[in-house]
Design brief:
Blueprint lengths: L1 E7 L6 H13 L4 E6 L12 H15 L5 E3 L12 H11 L4 E7 H6 L14 E5 L6 H15 L3 E4 L8 H9 L10 H9 L8
Parallel strand pairs: 1-2, 1-4, 2-3, 4-5, 5-6
Helix pairs in contact: 2-7
């Protein structure tokens, strides 16, 4: 099987995440796209907030419910330590040796991937799908791809998907002010945020 992998805090998951997964699924003829909520991402200093994690997981579950090729993976959410991409992909390859994995990331991550922990170990275990953005010239991305391919034998493809100026930060800030987050997240996720009064403790 060809499996797309999309990790993130998903705090909350939004329409941009879902569109990226859908375009990857269609463009690269994937069988499934796995959404992996991070329990304790390495770029954050705080310990795991289990209550927040349970809400983030439930919002992903709600968002992808009824979409047969979208799956929720608890692989990173179940761990207590920091989640590192290279470890996740190594473990996936060991557990599912017959699958081919396609790791979906944004343009900014493509340019910063050499700062990731043991990033060289990512490349043998997946094809990277790098989403294009308007603020990153395609020629710049092609040069970065050529550089990573030559230096690390990385397998990288450009992923053409709609650029939506939606961020989880914007959604949290709006929810904190009791403003509507409809149209930025699926309706059921918007209702979940409202019913559980999420993000109201933000300054």
């Amino acid at each position: 099987m060809k499996i797309g992998v999309m990790g993130g805090t998903f705090d909350p998951i939004h329409i941009g995440h879902l569109l990226l997964g859908q375009f990857a699924y269609e463009m690269f003829d994937l069988d499934e796209v796995w959404f992996l909520p991070n329990a304790n991402p390495p770029h954050k200093d705080t310990d795991i907030d289990r209550n927040s994690l349970s809400h983030r997981i439930e919002m992903v579950r709600i968002a992808i419910d009824g979409i047969p090729h979208f799956k929720l993976s608890m692989h990173e959410a179940d761990g207590k330590d920091h989640s590192y991409t290279y470890q996740t992909l190594e473990e996936f390859k060991a557990e599912y040796p017959d699958n081919e994995f396609y790791f979906i990331l944004g343009a900014d991550s493509l340019f910063s991937i050499e700062e990731w922990k043991y990033f060289e170990k990512i490349f043998p275990n997946c094809v990277i799908l790098a989403a294009m953005r308007d603020d990153k010239d395609v020629s710049d991305m092609e040069q970065q791809i050529a550089y990573l391919q030559e230096k690390y034998q990385a397998r990288i493809q450009l992923l053409a998907a709609p650029l939506l100026e939606i961020s989880s930060t914007t959604i949290r800030n709006r929810a904190a002010r009791k403003l509507s987050v409809h149209y930025m997240v699926p309706d059921l996720v918007a209702e979940y945020i409202e019913e559980n009064q999420l993000y109201l403790d933000r300054p």
